[in-house]
Design brief:
The complex is a heterodimer of chains A (248) and B (90).
Chain A lengths: L3 H6 L1 H4 L5 H9 L2 E5 L5 H11 L3 E5 L24 H12 L4 E5 L8 H5 L4 E4 L4 H14 L3 E7 L2 E7 L25 H19 L8 E6 L4 E6 L11 H6 L1
Parallel strand pairs in A: 1-2, 1-4, 2-3, 4-5
Antiparallel strand pairs in A: 5-6, 6-7, 7-8
Helix pairs in contact in A: 4-5, 4-8
Chain B lengths: L1 E5 L13 E5 L3 H11 L4 H4 L10 E5 L2 E2 L14 E6 L5
Parallel strand pairs in B: 1-5
Antiparallel strand pairs in B: 1-2, 3-4, 3-5
Classes of the chains: A alpha/beta (248), B alpha+beta (90).
Chain lengths: 248, 90
């Protein structure tokens, strides 16, 4: 049941056709796991908090540095040296005190990932490296939790949505490890991709629109082009295909 | 068979700033070889020393993923081939 304040706060989104108070109730009841409080995590967590998602768990093990501030907009000059999860939580609580923000200062590893995501309805991949993304992909498939993938580099970005058991996953198109690097990026790129991820999350929870499933959306900010590529589930995928099922 | 190869911005500096290169070939592999023949400097951006596609190179034909066995994938006249590079930042 929405309170009077909630009706007022969310009035403009409740007005959207297909959204209504039922959609707002679904957001209020949702528990979203956000992996990373950096460039992508900042817009994802901000817009999910503004939209009124019930519980958001943010996990990150880094501290705020000056070189983060060109893109990680939840962190400000006065936050340098603070843990990112604490810096992010302070802002998000000021934005919407009704949303329960859980800050967990930990590195996501194979040993803890299952426990970290336990009890959550959705996982948002706002990481900055592929090995952790693949851990999230694997646990999402194992626990049947939808995964919302985003990634950036320079003025380029990508997004896709994975519904375990139904659609192509990150590992379906995996060819092997790629070199780790200090990547170039301008803040507007994770802003665009993070907002696409948050849009996908909101649509999934509310149950409206078409998702980026079996699709890879590639954003080219320099030429202001979005290209959508079609993906297929790989029957031989180590995470969601026959090899994974036969291991069980 | 004429195929258009669409390149990501990161690779434009290897093709004289061309975003699209026309090549001839009947498979993805033949098309990429023709691309390398026209622009030899692009080769190490796409292939390892054994001639295998690098892990971060992603190929689509007419917007559809060519993975796996991309190089053997047949193409026909006027097909659009897209090269994208897998990225990892957040």
């Amino acid at each position: 049941m929405l309170t009077r304040d909630e009706w007022e706060r969310y009035d403009r989104q409740i007005m959207i056709r297909g959204f209504g108070p039922e959609g707002q109730e679904r957001l209020k009841g949702a528990r979203v796991f956000v992996a990373g409080a950096g460039g992508l995590g900042s817009p994802v967590a901000t817009y999910l908090t503004a939209a009124g998602v019930g519980v958001i768990r943010i996990v990150d093990h880094d501290s705020v540095e000056l070189s983060n501030l060109n893109r990680q907009v939840l962190h400000w000059e006065g936050d340098i040296g603070k843990r990112k999860v604490n810096s992010a939580t302070e802002k998000l609580r000021k934005l919407n005190r009704e949303v329960k923000i859980e800050a967990i200062e930990e590195m996501i590893t194979e040993a803890n990932v299952s426990q970290l995501v336990a009890g959550f309805d959705l996982i948002v991949d706002a990481m900055d490296n592929m090995p952790t993304r693949y851990l999230l992909n694997k646990v999402a498939i194992e626990k049947t939790i939808p995964l919302f993938h985003g990634v950036v580099h320079g003025f380029e970005g990508r997004a896709m949505t994975i519904i375990p058991g139904e659609t192509a996953c990150l590992w379906c198109v995996y060819r092997g490890a790629i070199p780790e690097e200090k990547f170039p990026v301008i803040g507007v790129t994770p802003a665009v991709i993070g907002c696409i991820q948050a849009t996908e999350v909101i649509k999934y929870i509310v149950g409206i629109g078409q998702l980026l499933t079996n699709k890879l959306l590639v954003y080219d900010g320099l030429n202001m082009k979005f290209t959508e590529f079609r993906l297929k589930k790989n029957p031989n995928c180590q995470h969601c295909g026959e090899p994974a099922r036969s291991k069980k | 068979m004429s195929v258009r190869i669409n390149l990501p911005p990161t690779l434009h500096s290897f093709t004289n700033n061309q975003a699209v290169v026309e090549v001839n070939g009947s498979t993805v592999g033949e098309c990429l070889n023709e691309l390398v023949r026209q622009f030899p400097r692009i080769k190490p951006m796409l292939f390892d020393k054994k001639g295998r596609l690098l892990n971060y190179v992603d190929i689509y034909v007419n917007y559809e993923s060519a993975y796996p066995e991309e190089l053997a994938k047949p193409v026909k006249d006027r097909d659009e081939l897209y090269i994208t590079l897998i990225i990892a930042g957040g």
